Amino acid sequence: MPELPEVETIVRGLARRVVADTITSVWIGSRPQPLKSPAAKIARTLDGAKIVSVHRAGKHIVFALERRAAQPASTVAPRRPAPASASAHWVVHLGMTGRLVVCEPGVEIARHTHLVASLASGRELRFVDPRMFGKLSVHDAGFDPGGVEPLDVSEENFVALFRGRKTPIKSALLNQKLVRGVGNIYADESLFRAGLRPRRRASTITRAELGKLHESVREVLREAIALGGSSISDYVDADGEEGFFQLQHRVYGREGEPCLVCKAPIRRVVLAGRSSHYCRNCQK
DNA sequence: ATACCGACCTGTCAGC
DNA sequence: TGCTGACAGGTCGGTA
Length: 284
Fold this sequence. Notes:
The chain is of the alpha+beta class. The chain has two domains: 4-139, N-terminal domain of MutM-like DNA repair proteins; 155-278, Orthogonal Bundle (Helicase, Ruva Protein, domain 3). Helices cover 24% and strands 23% of the residues. The chain is built from six helices and ten strands. A hairpin with a 2-residue loop joins strand 9 and strand 10. Helix 1 runs parallel beside helix 6 (207-226) and helix 5 (184-194) crosses helix 6 (207-226). The longest helix has 20 residues, at 207-226. The model has no long low-confidence stretch (mean pLDDT 92). The protein binds a DNA duplex through helix 5.
């Protein structure tokens, strides 16, 4: 479901609600599919941890946790040093249908709830994911999913990613090891704005066109974040609010409808197993 | 290296 | 009303 703008919106909402809160207990469901670390390790890492920050890395949500180290057994410590603490990261990928919700404990547990973290503030943070394409993991060291952040990368570094690649440009954009956070909707929308067909081989794209693509990707992502992401069927952010960028889609989901620039019908083809939408006139 | 495909899962919606 | 198939925002692994 969520791509970079949706994850960014969710992260901002979560940060408002749970930063500085402490996890007081953890319940994990019986379905192993979403768990990419052992359940016991996830529970052990989360339980008692303070949430220091929430941020986004590509489509991943990263909770920075701080755990107080076990108190020394000695009781007489007149001048105790600052309490030792250990840091860890809880990483959530929402897959297609994952949601993180913060709610009161009394709220009915939704179907397909896989994790519930009780918070010291009295609320609960829940992970719900019907299709179970989402992933939960914990990491003692830092977490780096690879790829560059499209909103941070320079034009020069962006252009270099595609040099010499024969793969279709859309496949390259979807490759999270190159650019992280761009998914099917924003790939199609960016390529439309850049005037590039999805199947165009990356290696045949000129420097100027790649510069335009760099600009288009960033523009689309920034506009989508400003509107809270795209709500196609059931996406809502951490506050339960829908996004509005779907109203700005120029090609995605518009098969057969007239191009907003030239009126030619928008085409839909399948590329790498994904629906791909483009205008034959406006994209080369 | 690359490209296509199915697999992983459940839910929804259109069409018959 | 109910069945069937297509499709869905994402990734991964196998095979040519």
